[in-house]
Amino acid sequence: MLSRLLKEHQAKQNERKEQQERRRREAISAATCLTEALVDHLNVGVAQAYVNQRKLDHEVKTLQVQASQFSKQTSQWISMVEGFNQALKEIGDVENWARSIEMDMRTIATALEYVHKGPLQSASS
After folding, report:
1. CA pair distance 41, 50, nearest whole angstrom
2. Considering the entire predicted model, what is its pTM?
3. What is the DSSP code (8-state) at residue 117?
4. How far does CA 65 lie from the centroid of its chain?
5. DSSP code per residue over 23-76
6. CA–CA distance, 70 with 11 (Å, rounded to integer)
7. At residue 85, what are phi and psi to the nearest 5 degrees?
8. How far apart are CA 101 and CA 103, in angstroms?
9. pLDDT tens digits for 45-73?
């Protein structure tokens, strides 16, 4: 009887150990699955962040190129406007010079008319 009780006790212990081992393996398997699922979920987010970062880097480079081109174009426009302003100033200077010459020519023409008519009037009197 004692021997039978000992055998039953050992059989129950072995059964409990097997059940405990089976549960431990199931827990490890479940934890592994959970860990893999979490890592996969995080990897999706990280991959999306990486893709977004690459897009942003590309956009930044494009924007830098466009800003540089705009700066060059703006400099060209400024140079053209400055040249135009200088040309307008020169036109104004030429206009003033032309008026000055015209006034001088009128003065000379008036003086010549006066000189030309002067002796004729004194001779007729």
Report:
1. 14
2. 0.48
3. H
4. 8
5. HHHHHHHHHHHHHHHHHHHHHHHHHHHHHHHHHHHHHHHHHHHHHHHHHHHHHH
6. 87
7. -60, -40
8. 5
9. 888 999 999 999 999 999 999 999 999 99
